[in-house]
Amino acid sequence: MEVEEVNISQEVILPRKPAKKRQHSTMEVDQVSGIQGTSRTSISGRKRPKSVDQRKIVVPVRRLGALKENWLKIVNPLTENLNLQVRFNLKSRQVEMRISPNTQDVANLQKGADFVKAFIYGFEVDDALALLRLDDLFVETFDVMDVKTLRGDHKSRAIGRLAGKGGRTKYTIENTTKTRIVLADSRVHILGSFQNIQLARRAICNLIIGSPPNKVYGNLRSVAGRISERI
Predict the structure, then answer these.
(1) Confidence of residue 230 (pLDDT cuts 50, 70, 90)
(2) What backbone torsions phi and psi does residue 127 show, to the nearest 5 degrees?
(3) Are the C-beta atoms of residues 137 and 35 closer than 8 Å to each other?
(4) Which residues form a coiled coil (predicted)?
(5) Distance CA 207, CA 169 (A)
(6) Domain 54-134 falls in which CATH fold?
């Protein structure tokens, strides 16, 4: 009686590769020049693309003088902190910036463009610098006419209600919502986090419609108090 030999092939089990750990970024609530936002400390920067990208920001004539006076304050953070290449084109009146070989994060280019745009809108350099130091900050722009159609003196009175006597109303909204507001004729620019911008815009819209300032202040403080309790 013959016994057949059966070959049992053993499966080769390869050792599992260790899973790559995701690199997380830490976010902390911080405040710069009275503007509240979150600061993010990234572990590793993003890779720079092979194609060189650039941004061009047109400077209106009314802001040329301010740009000339604060040029060094604007250029130094862009070149030293963000490692961008910056120049001002006299013919086209544009601030041109692009990525340099030393730029570690491609997001720095957009940050730099937002910083320059905020200054062009009318924000102070120290306030606009918050866009570079804090994350989740934005600049929202809208027109008074977008809220309510006003003509002649009614439009002027609405803009006056936003500023208040000696700028008191504007400062109160800024301090309560931890934002910065610029009133440029009928244009309103708000710098801050998304939640704080919505809070400030709601108060401004109520003033444009015609709500009494005292009522707007009361609603603003109550909402801001509830938000601070949640945080």
Answers:
(1) low
(2) -70, -40
(3) yes
(4) none
(5) 10
(6) Ribosomal Protein S8; Chain: A, domain 1 (3.30.1370)
CB 180 within 8 A of CB 139: no
The closest of 213, 224, 208 to 145, measured between CA atoms, is 208
**Residue ranges per structural domain of the chain:** 54-134, 138-230
List, for residues 186-226, the tens digit of each pLDDT value: 899 999 999 999 999 999 998 988 888 888 888 877 877 77
Mean pLDDT of the chain: 81
Q: Which distant-in-sequence residues (6+ apart) come within 8 Å of 27 by Cβ?
A: 38, 39, 40, 135
pLDDT tens digits, residue range 20-64?
555 545 556 666 666 766 665 544 455 544 445 889 999 999 999
Helix H or strand E encompassing 110: helix 107-121
pTM of the shown model: 0.74
Contact (Cβ atoms closer than 8 angstroms) between residue 153 and residue 214:
no
End-to-end CA distance of the chain: 85
For domain 138-230, the CATH superfamily is K Homology domain, type 1 (3.30.1370.10)
Task: Please provide the DSSP assignment of 8-76 as one string.
Answer: -PPPP-PPPPPPPPP---EEEEEEETTEEEEEEE-SSPPPPPSSPPEEEEE--GGGHHHHHHTHHHHHH
Angle at 35 between CA 32 and CA 36, to 5 degrees: 95
Are both 54-134 and 138-230 of the same fold? yes
Residue 212 identity (one-letter amino acid): P
